[in-house]
């Protein structure tokens, strides 16, 4: 296989890894107003991702760096044309990260409430805008003969892209709430299971329309199969949650994210940024890639370091695999005072 095509799939794998891992982080953050009835409950929710959220975000850094090195033309067109949405995502992620680190620095309820709001907004904005961005990439945007984006922000706010954003927003929310149900006990656990059921039915309806639209616009066997897998996995996730099987519910939700992003990636192939102005102006895997020498060095680096990253991440999740208990948080708070 040509190295450019290999790296197209590697970058797809990195983005899938990012959305699988940071996707439930977004959902956990968005769930705070719905599940956190008091400060202990909110701490219980936040602590479910406390040890891993920053590690999950590193997948985005690796994916972005790989995109820059392997497909510089794609990177340049994407980051110049999508500058404002990507900037908003970056600012939201910064606000969320700061909130996780500073929320507990004071006992003031007003202080904590402000950072809780930043966590919610910092989770919802990326969850929405990532869907808008990827839907636009797959659908195609105005690109001229110099591979420069010629549209505006309003160009990106089209019906298909907005539906994609709503789909990822709801999917990540349901995914994150399923994770809260898996990782907590007591009232938060019970509320999360009920909320996942309600949001799950809405997610199924919206995601079905988006996946059907994608399949009709990009017919092909891989796209159709992955869209069906995503739909079935989402239905099974909601069903498992109704049967109080939190582990299965979360697992099927993760499969949904993998299959949904895979659907978009196969719909994009062999382009990396189709041009809606003229198909001849589209960026493809071949005309957007780096030299073979660069891709060869990157391939050896990926072969050495990617297994180490996967092993370390797996070990981290194993260490922090236990449920976050409300009684443990209350006991720690009592000892602190």
Automatic annotation (TrEMBL):
Keywords assigned: Cell membrane, Electron transport, Heme, Iron, Membrane, Metal-binding, Transmembrane, Transmembrane helix, Transport
TM region positions: 6-24, 74-94, 115-139, 159-183, 195-215, 221-242, 249-272, 297-320
BP terms from Gene Ontology: aerobic electron transport chain
GO annotation, cellular component aspect: cytochrome complex; plasma membrane
Record's keyword annotation contains Metal-binding: yes
An example molecular function term from Gene Ontology annotations: oxidoreductase activity, acting on diphenols and related substances as donors, oxygen as acceptor
Superkingdom as given in the UniProt entry: Bacteria
Subcellular location: Cell membrane
Topology in the lipid bilayer: Multi-pass membrane protein
NCBIfam families in the cross-refs: cydB
Family the UniProt entry places it in: Belongs to the cytochrome ubiquinol oxidase subunit 2 family.
The protein's name in its UniProt record: Cytochrome d ubiquinol oxidase subunit II
Naturally occurring in which organism (per UniProt): Microbacterium limosum
Gene this protein is translated from: cydB
